[in-house]
Design goal:
single chain; about 210 residues; mainly alpha; about 75% helix
């Protein structure tokens, strides 16, 4: 009986060691919550700037919209989204480093590098796609749906190098992006849900599941 228990303990230990070497398991649920909060704050500033009412219809995407106004709005969104991204990255890095130290895992190991590379490629592709869609063709209304879809694809591509739960967030972002394409003109609303609400829900779930009792 004792021998069987020792074998099970050894197998569990081996499994844990293999998981640590192939997957980056120190992602912090709190970082998702903070990223969602920052996204909601950024969306709030956008609503104030654009003077929009519910449901945040993007009246300025019409072909007859003033080009100067469209350009100013696009510059605002670039600055707004950049600030949200920077704040999210800083907080996420600090919380992930803290959790990695608690787990005894290196922050920049092989699994972390694979996670970063597999997530960065779809994100950079999506970012360039959005820029081309706007600056070459003026498709400003497609930017929010494209951001959601490519972000979801990036998460899905990177999920095999981290916790499986990331796949659920990835699929939710992709589906939401497709809905946003179907309802062109409400991109800010879908962007708020995807990068704000879904991140908070996902982060809370991750914190409850993996961190609350640690």
């Amino acid at each position: 009986m004792d021998t069987s228990k020792e074998h099970l303990d050894q197998l569990a230990h081996i499994r844990t060691m293999m998981e640590r070497s192939t997957r980056f398991i120190s992602l912090s649920g709190l970082s998702g919550i903070f990223a969602g909060i920052f996204a909601l704050i950024g969306a709030g500033f956008a609503v104030i700037y654009l003077k929009l009412g519910f449901p945040y219809s993007e009246y300025w995407i019409t072909p007859n919209a003033n080009l100067t106004s469209r350009s100013a709005i696009m510059k605002f969104f670039i600055v707004d989204a950049s600030l949200v991204l920077i704040a999210s990255i800083v907080v996420s890095t600090l919380l992930t480093v803290k959790r990695a130290n608690q787990n005894g895992q290196q922050i920049w190991n092989v699994a972390a590098k694979r996670l970063f590379i597999n997530m960065a490629i779809p994100l950079l592709t999506g970012g360039l796609f959005c820029l081309i869609a706007y600056y070459r063709y003026g498709y400003i209304g497609m930017i929010a749906p494209l951001m959601l879809i490519f972000y979801g694809l990036a998460l899905l591509n990177a999920s095999k190098y981290t916790l499986d739960d990331v796949r659920y967030l990835a699929l939710a972002e992709i589906v939401l992006g497709l809905f946003a394409f179907y309802k062109i003109g409400y991109g800010l609303l879908f962007w708020t849900i995807g990068f704000g609400v879904l991140h908070i829900v996902y982060g809370a779930w991750m914190w409850i599941k993996y961190e609350r009792n640690s």
